## 1
Amino acid sequence: MIKLQRGMLWALVMVLTLAFLPGVPVKAAEEPVIRVKLKNYLGNKSQITIIPDVTYTTNLANKKLEANQTYTLKVSGSNIVVLKGSNEVGKASQVEAKPMKGNGPLSINGRKYLGSFTFTIESGKYVRPINAIGLEEYLKGVVPSEMPALWHIEALKAQAVAARTYAMGYIGKIVDDTQSYQVYGGYAWHEKSTKAVEATEGQVITYGGTPIGAGAVFSSSNGGKTESNTNAWGTAALPYLTIKDDPFDPQSEWSFSIKKKQIDIAKLDLTNADEWWAAIKEAEQSKVLTNMKAWLRANGYANKDIKITAVPALSLHSKTSGGRVSKGSIAIEFLIREQGKALARRLELVNVPASKIRAIVGPSLMKSYFVDTVDTAANTIKVSGKGYGHGVGLSQYGAKNAAEAGKTYKDILTFYYEKTSVATLYKSAPEQPEPVEPAPVPTPAPAKDMRAPVIKDVKTSYDSKTKQVKLSFVINEKAKVTVYVKDQNGKILTYLVNGSQKQAGLHSTVWSVSNIKNEKYTFAIIAVDSSNNRSSTAVPFTLTKSVPKDTTAPVIKNTKTSFDSKTNKIFLRYEINEAAKVAVYVKDSKGKILTYLAKNAQKQAGVQWASLNASKISSGKYTFVITVTDASNNKRSAEASYTLTKPNR
């Protein structure tokens, strides 16, 4: 669960530098507002969909965003255009939206957020929302995103106070909703974590009477020993972030291994890689190799086809006073394929920061710098360690165990942030009720409805003619109904119904799947009655559309032959428009087949190469015959000729 590793090194340096600056003495104040750039769940989108639950005012002339209506915001030149259906509502260089009453919420691409919004243009092409929200409601979206919401309430309280303190270091600035600051899930609250936030309202960690702000860092597990900020990031020592044994941390262990020898290239013809490239595999198909290839492609070998042939050396050393490795070395030998050839390359890094080795191996495998052993004696390199994350400040798993052992959240925070105390910085002002006329003696209020709506008789069916999935269900009382569809990874694809008022009885909705692939999906149905009682159900559905038979053969185009006098080879270049199995053979002027350059070789769409060694053939006309067969067994052939003229001897 490492939602807690704090982004890039420079960001961490700034974080802890700011934390060391003088703060404001603790006193009663208003609840601050924090501004959050939404990117973690949204990604980079040039067009987004928003659905407000209440009416929002905007900075567009006399225009409002009406409740329960769907709007599209998209980048057009230097403006963001707001559309309702196909009709333009307005446009501006940035669009501001503020709820007329209450605090929302507003849905952005299926995820709900409270507060006000400024929609800006980022990098000239993306719509980037900035959510302005009160700190307490922000924390209700942070705590369950950073710590499992079903953990002990005292651990959740400790997380809430640490998260609030950290956020206080960024009031007046803009943070984002990723691990670079704190993961913020919007209006995705959990009852238990919300209770922890409310129970600690306004409370922050202080040192010498001053809030420690962005010094309130935390990680998943420290492996049994805390680390200092100086060792972790090279910043000036903070007196409350010290090194010591942690009896509460579970010392969770991790390990990974990799074989030193992956491919024996001694018997491979590197000048004719197309003949064997698809068939030759590394000795192991592991995550560590996948991570190494991804790192290589991001560091000088973009879009290259890579095979790791050996990892002859890997070391991690130079431990800090907190027991973490700070330096490392690695050697990686690999092949890249270019124009039918395999080019041997070697990467060797010696005594580089351990963070670079971790980036190559992958932080999900090398979970921390608390490394116990690096065993290189045999044919396999084995690395093992403890913890998950940087180990500075609060350990989340340590907080969990401490709470279960009877420690309070203040005990937990005092242990992880030495010589600090918890103080209340502000309290939210109570809402003032509107004045009312005196009323006669009231009649007893009716008993409160505590029963959630019943959702039953849920059925799904697929209509192959309309290419729609029909979902029907029955609810037993009037309720606001939401229906959405998730893919097998849990990602929400679309909302079929969004907070629509429905009467008791049978209801149905349809999902158009003409552009949806066959796999497992889940329909989620949520019903909320007038007393705010909520029920939900999830219904799995496997989409199995019939796929039209492919009767179109692959296309072979742009065939070209050439002769390279340096290598004494005839080269064949051609393109195919889809993945296919390829056979290439060469025949002489009498039609006799001389050799096969490829047999049943699986190729992806794009440019292909083959070559013929001309050293043992005489002058004359030679024909390359290319046959490609796709997955539906459609076949096509093409020919390309070359006339070889050798000098007389």
## 2
Amino acid sequence: MYERALRWAAHRHAPWYLTALSFFEAIIFPIPPEVMLAPMSLAQPKRAFWFAALSLAGSMVGMFVGYALGYYALELAMPLVERLGYAGQFEQIKQQAAENGLLLLILAGFTPVPFKVFTIASGAVGMPLLPFFIGALIGRGKRVFLVALAIRLGGARAEAALRRHIEPIGWIALVLLAAVVGWLVWQAQGA
């Protein structure tokens, strides 16, 4: 499956394939869209952010399907969660989604747990749609746009480093983002 995704990245319809892969990865596929996004961005660096936007759009639509599965048909989604090996953690993720779903989704983009597990759990607890949308947009968006930015700036070396270190890089980016947001909030309160 991984090798097929790499071949799709070189196809003339690659942007459509990337969007479709991102959609299905958000629901069922185990292959992350970065396996197509990275080589596509490397081949056409000026279009890297466009490719990231397409990936994010496909993921967002897929995440709403995952949310709907959790909300309306959890019994259909549970075999997938079990097959992924996260049935034991699912109850804890559901509880976290019920307590602070927005933050959970923002952080979920760089955890080893597939994002689809978080979206299904968010639907299962009936998380309000606006916080779900915002959290999913930031959670997935920071990951795909970080890939696009790194490849746009660093080329093939950045792509190889990203492949090895995406999670730690993501956590560092998240800490920096939180620091900037915290500073802006602090400035707004002082003004």
